[in-house]
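Narrative of accomplishments. A recurring question from our advisory board has been how the design workflow behaves on a single, concrete structure rather than in aggregate. To address it, we present the structure tokens for one chain from the evaluation set, followed by the sequence designed for it. No filtering or post-editing was applied between the two.
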């Protein structure tokens, strides 16, 4: 494990462009591979993360032609019916998105395959995709408790189903949409627990798939649903990938918490299903402004400017409590919001976030331990935590627990602390943002 020493910062100043969005990069690569045979799609600003590299490696093992040069990737489509059975289990590394999305694609093929990953990924819940894919006609077996490796006996064609998601999960929704491309009839996914990010729908539309989205009555509530009907024929399409707003969140938080900061993040993705972090930071008192918005590749790009004033004062009653549907829109940003909570007048409470316990690590437990080590008063709940009040943090020995978002959140906490901190496991940032520390240092003034 790599140990990094981090000194406090005075402020953040400058302009940066964060790497391409992880969620979009995974999906763009897979959907480009499903385009009509022979057509080539060029993906620019493809994410540099290890997770997204794992998706490309798995696709290559399935016979997809891929050429990569830096952050540019060219992919030749195979159509939706594939014939190249993998010779060995497909290694998804640490990437839950890779495993869940590829499971949907592979469930509708006429060969058998196995998806596996590292120890962390093999501990994460997969029943949420196994059950609906089996309902569609695939046969998927797993280790005890619905954990990877996933052994997939594909069926072509699958059977279209109407399925209400039992959890708010864009990964499960995307898995079933991809499976639906190889199913007879209509496949409908009902987001019974609330709307999730819609990158898959936007990309499928960009590549020529006719989707139907609507609001429908489900158990007395109006909820969103999306349907795909076969036959579907995808056409290759170039795609410029926006900067990852979840990666940008760490820079936004650091600059907002350091008085005198003035930081601009360029060409960040502003998909409406992902901008809850901006609304939340603004309601908590952060000075974040959006400018230069434009539409590209069926997504919205923009520029974010944040100015730091030190401690934050919420602008409205109740802003200090994050729960319910709000949490689903912040699931990747909750670790850094825990850090922000230590610098907010009145502290911060996060509830209804039990999903954090089954990420790369138990993120609730990890943030509680690290913030307590820095002197914060934190109460832990089964589904979240509460930072009692605003107080200065002290440098401490911090642990990433092998989780990229915990590592980056702790790095920001160290920047605003008094005294040096040591971060164990700093190398885990490579999962999503290999350039994180270099980019952070480039705009940090001490």
């Amino acid at each position: 494990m790599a140990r990094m020493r981090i000194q406090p910062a005075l402020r953040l100043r400058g302009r940066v462009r964060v790497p391409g969005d992880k969620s979009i990069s995974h999906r763009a690569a897979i959907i480009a591979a499903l385009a009509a045979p022979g057509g080539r799609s060029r993906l620019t600003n493809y994410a540099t993360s290890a997770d997204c590299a794992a998706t490309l490696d798995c696709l290559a093992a399935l016979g997809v032609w891929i050429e990569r040069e830096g952050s540019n990737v060219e992919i030749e489509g195979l159509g939706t019916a594939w014939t190249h059975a993998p010779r060995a289990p497909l290694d998804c590394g640490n990437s839950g998105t890779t495993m869940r999305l590829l499971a949907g694609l592979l469930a509708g093929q006429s060969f058998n395959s196995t998806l596996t990953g590292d120890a962390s990924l093999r501990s994460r819940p997969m029943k949420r995709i196994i059950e609906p894919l089996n309902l569609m006609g695939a046969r998927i077996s797993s280790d005890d408790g619905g954990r990877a490796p996933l052994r997939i006996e594909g069926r072509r064609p699958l059977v279209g189903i109407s399925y209400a998601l039992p959890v708010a999960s864009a990964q499960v929704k995307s898995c079933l949409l991809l499976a639906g491309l190889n199913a007879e009839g209509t496949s409908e996914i009902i987001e019974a627990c609330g709307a999730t990010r819609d990158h898959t729908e936007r990309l499928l539309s960009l590549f020529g798939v006719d989707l139907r989205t609507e609001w429908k009555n489900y158990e007395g509530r109006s909820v969103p649903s999306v349907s795909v009907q076969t036959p579907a024929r995808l056409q290759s399409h170039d795609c410029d990938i926006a900067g990852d707003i979840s990666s940008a969140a760490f820079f936004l938080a650091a600059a907002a918490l350091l008085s005198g900061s003035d930081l601009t993040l360029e060409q960040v993705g502003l998909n409406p299903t992902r901008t809850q972090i901006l609304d939340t930071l603004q309601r908590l008192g952060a000075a974040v402004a959006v400018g230069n918005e434009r539409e590209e590749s069926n997504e919205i790009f923009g520029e974010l400017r944040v100015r730091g004033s030190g401690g934050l004062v919420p602008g409205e009653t109740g802003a200090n409590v994050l729960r319910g549907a709000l949490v689903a829109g912040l699931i990747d940003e909750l670790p850094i919001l825990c850090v922000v909570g230590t610098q907010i007048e009145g502290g911060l409470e996060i509830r209804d976030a039990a999903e954090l316990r089954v990420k790369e690590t138990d993120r609730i437990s990890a943030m509680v331990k690290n913030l307590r080590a820095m002197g914060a008063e934190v109460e832990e709940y089964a589904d979240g935590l509460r930072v009692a009040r605003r107080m200065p943090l002290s440098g401490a020995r911090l642990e990433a627990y092998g989780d990229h978002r915990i590592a980056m959140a702790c790095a920001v906490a160290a920047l605003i602390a008094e005294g040096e901190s040591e971060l164990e496991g700093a190398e885990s940032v490579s999962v999503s943002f290999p350039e994180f520390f270099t980019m952070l240092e480039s705009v940090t003034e001490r």
